[in-house]
Amino acid sequence: MSELLLALAPRALLVLGFCAATVGAAGFGDPVEGLAWPLFALGLAAVICGGLLLRMQARRRVESGRGGALDRAGLAAALPHPAPQLE
Prior knowledge:
The chain is mostly helical. The chain has three helices and no strands. It has helices at 2-26, 36-63, 72-78. Helix 1 (2-26) packs antiparallel against helix 2. It is elongated, with a radius of gyration of 20 Å. The termini are far apart.
């Protein structure tokens, strides 16, 4: 269960950060809302952190051999037939 939460946390941070940045950006109308800049900056920081965490997770997964590498047979099967020969 904790592994699932660790896998979902960066995605949730990314989504919530995007939502917060969008709401903050919506406050930049005329006149500018008081919380527009802090909400936008916080959301942008959350998006950046979520993206970095997702990238770190992907690198760890590839380094441990649990996925991430392209399987040539699977890639060839996904291409329309006749599939080009992969070298």
